[in-house]
């Protein structure tokens, strides 16, 4: 800058540009925070996301408790059919069938 001013320019545009550069670089530097901005402390139990998940969890627990009490009181029809369709395996049936393999 000083070198350009020492030339004593006569051109008005050149002189104006030099003055702009001088004012730009002579401004006081803004103090930079080396540690960065401070973070706000967040109380995790009061965030909307945590409240939402807590609400969903309580509803799921209530539904599970209701389903558990219903299943203990009376088994569902599928469970009744499954228990009725299960019969002990009869090994005598295997012995009575012809187990020899015949090839054509």
TrEMBL record:
<feature type="compositionally biased region" description="Basic and acidic residues">
    <location>
        <begin position="77"/>
        <end position="87"/>
    </location>
</feature>
<protein>
    <submittedName>
        <fullName>Uncharacterized protein</fullName>
    </submittedName>
</protein>
<feature type="region of interest" description="Disordered">
    <location>
        <begin position="25"/>
        <end position="44"/>
    </location>
</feature>
<feature type="region of interest" description="Disordered">
    <location>
        <begin position="68"/>
        <end position="89"/>
    </location>
</feature>
């Amino acid at each position: 800058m000083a070198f350009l001013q020492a030339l004593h320019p006569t051109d008005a545009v050149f002189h104006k540009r030099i003055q702009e550069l001088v004012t730009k670089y002579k401004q006081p530097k803004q103090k930079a925070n080396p540690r960065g901005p401070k973070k706000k402390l967040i109380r995790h139990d009061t965030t909307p996301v945590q409240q939402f998940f807590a609400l969903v969890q309580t509803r799921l627990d209530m539904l599970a408790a209701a389903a558990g009490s219903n299943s203990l009181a009376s088994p569902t029809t599928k469970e009744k059919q499954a228990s009725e369709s299960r019969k002990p395996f009869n090994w005598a049936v295997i012995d009575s069938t012809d187990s020899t393999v015949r090839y054509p």
